[in-house]
Structures are given as C-alpha cells and as structure tokens.
Amino acid sequence: MEMHQHVERIMIGEEKIAARVKELALQLDKLYEGRKPVVVCILKGSFMFFADLVRNMKVETEIDFMAVSSYGGGTVSTREVKIKKDLATDIKGRDVLIVEDIIDSGNTLYSLKRLLNERAPASVNIVTLLDKPERREVPMEPEYTGFVIEDEFVVGYGLDYAEDYRNLPYIGILKREVYEK
Ligand code: IMP
Ligand code: MG
C-alpha cells in the first residue's frame, strides 16, 4: 500500500507548516541579530523542520547535528536519554539553538539542555515544531513552538513510527490498523 494511504487524517498540512516556519525564522532572526548561533538539528526527527527553518533564517548561522535516543521502536517513552552522536562544534561561549521535532514527556530536552549547559555556552534556546504539553513529566518550556497539539501520536515531516513515514510532507495521524500490524 502507498504511504499516504496509511494516514487517517492530516493534522497540519504542508502550507500551514511552511507559513509557521517562516514566522519562526523571522522571530529567530530578530533574537540572533548581529550574532551567529550554532543551530543544532536533533536527529533524526527534526531534519526536515531544521532544513526549512535554517533556509528561511537570514542571520549567519553554523549548523551541527546531534543524535540522542529516548524512544525505542514504539510509541512509549523509555525516559532514558543517551547521546548517539555528539556535536562537532565547541559551543563554549556560543549561542546555541536546539531544533527539535516534538516535545512529549520533556525528558529528552530536559537532559539535553542540562548537558549542553555544562559546556558553558553563552545561551541555549529551544525551538520545537510541535509540543504536547499534556504529556509533560518534567518541567520543559521551549522558547519557540510551532504548534501546540493534542495528545495524539503523529508522523510525517521528519517524525516516524518505527522509522517509517518520516518523508511524508505533512503532519498526520495513522490509521489504527497500522499499529495493529
Ligand atoms: P520526550 O523526551 O518524551 O519529550 O520525547 C521527545 C521525542 O519523542 C521526540 O523527539 C520524538 O522523537 C519522539 N516522539 C514523541 N511524540 C511523538 C509522536 O507523536 N510522533 C513521533 N515521535 C514522537
Ligand atoms: Mg526526536
């Protein structure tokens, strides 16, 4: 079956995402005016949001990538955060912008932010495309949020279900039978 046919409904369409990404880029341009932030893509989920965001930003940036694990193959958080790939950049004294796909329990970013702060950056800000505040287990307030969503498992635009659906161009909800396979 074709990928799009696994989708029950589109929660946030391509045009809505693109418009919001432009707004966020404008806000970030103002925040970092005259500076040169290290913009960090949290792999893999934020790769698409990250690419669209930095493409729309006009301030100078450096980009870097980090991979952390918090979820297994399924839909439930394991609460454990491990660094699978670290930054190549020395962030001491730098302005760091973490780009995340979604904040759920908050555990991933809570530990990640604490860890990066130990490296004495000038600042650490978080921009997340999606936020599910209802699911929060630890205090975690992103500085910038694309969309606040209800407590539903979403895929697409970088987000996966067991590594599938990351290349869907929109944020969608899967049909129940997909999880029951
Ligand atoms: P947290 O540590 O619980 O905040 O989890 C954040 C991470 O869980 C995100 O970076 C995603 O990789 C994953 N995640 C949480 N909710 C969803 C979802 O609805 N769809 C896909 N991945 C999700
Ligand atoms: Mg992720």
Task: Tag the structure with descriptive keywords.
binds inosinic acid; 4 helices; Rossmann fold; alpha/beta; 181 residues; binds magnesium ion
Please state the average pLDDT score: 93
Strand order across the biggest sheet?
4-3-2-5-6-7
Do you know the CATH architecture? 3-Layer(aba) Sandwich
Strand content: 25-35%
* Major sheet size, sense and barrel closure: 6 strands, mixed
What structural class results from the helix and strand content? alpha/beta
Work out the radius of gyration: 16 Å
What is the CA-CA span between the terminal residues? 13 Å
Which consecutive residue ranges, at least 5 long each, have pLDDT under 50? Answer: none
Ligands bound here?
inosinic acid, magnesium ion
The topology string of helices and strands comes to EHEHEEEHEEEH
The best one-word shape is globular
Count of DSSP helices?
A: 4
Name of the level-1 CATH class: Alpha Beta
Percent of residues in helices: 10-25%
Structural description of this entry:
There is one protein chain. The longest helix is centred in the first third of the chain and has 18 residues, at 14-31. It is built from 4 helices and 8 strands, in the order βαβαβββαβββα. Helix 1 (14-31) crosses helix 2. It is globular and about 50 Å long. It has helices at residues 14-31, 47-56, 107-117, 176-179; strands at residues 7-12, 38-43, 62-71, 77-85, 95-103, 123-131, 144-148, 171-174. With 181 residues, it is α/β, with parallel strands linked by helices. The protein has one domain (7-179): Rossmann fold. It binds inosinic acid and magnesium ion. Magnesium ion binds at residues 42, 45, 101.
